[in-house]
Design brief:
This protein is mainly α. Helices cover about 65% and strands about 0% of the residues. It has helices spanning about 10-30, 35-45, 55-65, 75-85, 90-105, 110-120, 125-140, 145, 150-160, 180-195, 200-210, 230-245, 250-260, 265-280, 290-300, 305-320, 320-325, 330-335, 340-355, 360-370, 375-390, 395-410, 415-430, 435-445, 450-465, 475-485, 490-505, 510-520, 530-540, 545-550. Helix 12 (about 230-245) runs parallel beside helix 14.
Length: about 550
């Protein structure tokens, strides 16, 4: 079908469809021989003769993907350079920069360095952003070359042009203003950080240069520039946190900046700064006051995304500083009935961490009402929250156990079921009063468990705790059912669990005889591992000293 690329005149629509098919195959992961890819690559370059805008964009995308598996791709450089000329369409110029930087060899980068530097300070946002993002991609392979572009990147960030002679992208005015697009600032600050990331003081000056305290000067010299991009401010917050992690002596200085950004007019910046403040190491409750107050305001936002971001941050903070989150309890209580179930889930789990024992019953009842309406990810969060509460409020073990046993009967993925199982195991270990009830629920779970790993985990726990209960024989039936009905891995784990019951010091002779009979039946299993474990168990059960050495201490 690629023959249509060689037809005259070029048929844009048919060519676009064929290029779309080629891209689909490449994105799907289909392999293509180098020779075939090279021939196809050069056939596609003939489409540069057509001025159709949509076709040209498809050509750029395709040659970028084929450049990694084709040979001699550098031959298309002249066509791309032609599309970068001032008289070309903006769409041509921006995409040509991206394609050229994708196929160019790092050793040839100095030859096009002047063009990329001129594109970085271009007044058209699309061209400037294309040059900045392409430079960021090139940084990994040509760090030394890209570092020389720091002045141009800084000018793009500050919105001022530098005098460097005639511009490659048109005009010879040395004072031509570069783009003031917000997205250009975002890309520029990302590239500038990549260039300066190993210079701690340079990064510090970059962060401080755009704070409210330093609006009259930039880190490269007083420019009086301000950031208009909220995404760029978000990046500054993250860079500030990295500086604080690498140099604890700068924490007080940058802590003031974080508090300033918490009060930023943009919700995006304020939420990011509040989240960063809550995640700082060794942060005090007093230092968290500003962040918690801002998050409390966001809890009443009409936008679900803002409410979700705020409640998720408070949920994370409640793990380490529950007392700092308690002032938000009233606001979080109103989110329990939120139409967005994700927000409601975080609200309830956060209240469980910050509330008192009296509120547990009410919250658990509300949470059980919509467990079937939320995704497995949030079910896992709920299970982890209940697990932490089991130790905090041991007196409510019956409520927790009823909730966990109920969710085990619901549909769910492996991670969710594993979290619920571990919560029940913790409850059985730390609250002796509910051990037998917990073991009974686990026995019920393995009767219809679709996850082999979870069955093995439960069987191992039954083997550890079951022999020490008042009626160990009631668990043996459930364990032996696994020998009869399950796969080889679960059968082997069941044999090991039975061995623990027969070797327990508290086991009466009649129970030991019953276990021995069950183990002898396992000698006829079709799987070697099951037979070997059963034979080993019968051999080791011969004497008290042998059981003590090889079975009880296992």
């Amino acid at each position: 079908e690629a023959r249509i690329f060689n037809q005259t005149p070029i048929r844009p629509r048919h060519s676009r469809l064929l290029l779309a098919k080629i891209l689909f195959l490449l994105y799907r992961g289909d392999s293509m021989p180098t020779t075939e890819a090279t021939n196809l690559f050069f056939s596609i370059t003939k489409l540069f003769q057509c001025k159709d805008m949509s076709l040209r964009q498809m050509v750029y995308l395709t040659i970028k993907e084929l450049s990694t598996i084709s040979e001699d791709v550098i031959m298309v450089t002249s066509s791309l350079m032609k599309d970068m000329q001032p008289k070309s369409e903006i769409t041509y110029r921006a995409n040509a920069i991206r394609a050229l930087c994708k196929i160019v060899d790092p050793s040839m980068l100095p030859g096009i360095e002047r063009f990329i530097k001129s594109a970085i300070v271009e007044k058209t946002p699309a061209i400037a952003s294309a040059a900045l993002v392409s430079s960021l991609h090139l940084f990994g392979e040509a760090k030394d070359v890209v570092r020389r572009w720091a002045n141009e990147v800084n000018e793009a960030l500050n919105g001022k042009a530098i005098s460097q002679g005639p511009s490659f992208f048109g005009g010879s005015n040395p004072n031509q203003a570069v783009s003031t697009s917000n997205i250009v600032q975002y890309h520029a600050i990302g590239l500038l950080y990549a260039i300066r990331q190993h210079d701690r003081m340079a990064v510090l000056k970059l962060v401080q240069g755009f704070s409210g305290q330093n609006k009259s000067s930039s880190w490269m010299g007083g420019s009086g520039a301000t950031l208009r991009s909220n995404m760029a401010y978000v990046m500054l917050v993250r860079y500030a946190v990295r500086v604080m992690e690498n140099d604890p002596s700068l924490v007080p200085q940058l802590h003031v900046l974080l508090e300033e950004w918490i009060r930023h007019r943009s919700d995006m910046v304020s939420l990011e700064a509040a989240r960063a403040m809550c995640q700082l190491r060794d942060v005090t409750a007093k230092q968290l006051t500003g962040a918690v107050n801002a998050l409390q305001v966001f809890l009443s936002s009409p936008r679900p995304t803002v409410r979700f971001a705020a409640i998720r941050t408070l949920n994370t903070l409640a793990r380490t500083h529950p007392e700092a989150v308690q002032p938000c309890n009233v606001d979080m209580g109103g989110l329990i009935t939120d139409s967005n179930r994700s927000v409601a889930t975080f609200a309830i789990t956060t209240l469980l961490k910050t509330g008192n024992e009296a509120s547990v019953d009410r919250l658990m009842k509300q949470m059980q009402g919509f467990m079937t309406e939320i995704s497995d990810e949030f079910k896992t969060i709920v299970a982890e929250a209940v697990r932490s509460l089991c130790r905090k409020f041991p007196g409510k073990h019956s409520v927790f156990l009823a909730f966990l046993s109920g969710v085990l009967r619901d549909e769910g993925g492996y991670d969710f079921k594993r979290s619920a199982i571990e919560a029940i195991v913790d409850l059985a270990k730390h609250v002796p009063e509910c051990k037998e009830a917990a073991l009974a629920h686990l026995c019920e779970f393995i009767e219809d468990c679709e996850f082999t790993k979870l069955s093995v985990r439960v069987l191992h726990f039954l083997g550890e705790e079951g022999p020490h209960t008042a009626r160990p024989s009631m668990y043996i039936r459930h364990i032996y059912n696994r020998v009869v009905l399950e796969n080889a891995v679960v059968r082997a784990a069941a044999v090991s669990a039975l061995t623990k019951f027969g070797a327990a010091a508290v086991a009466d002779p009649s129970l030991q005889r019953s276990v021995r009979v069950l183990l002898q039946r396992c000698l006829d299993d079709r799987e070697d591992e099951v037979r070997d474990r059963a034979a080993w168990a019968l051999r080791m059960a011969g004497g008290e000293r042998t059981r003590d050495k090889y079975v009880r201490d296992d």
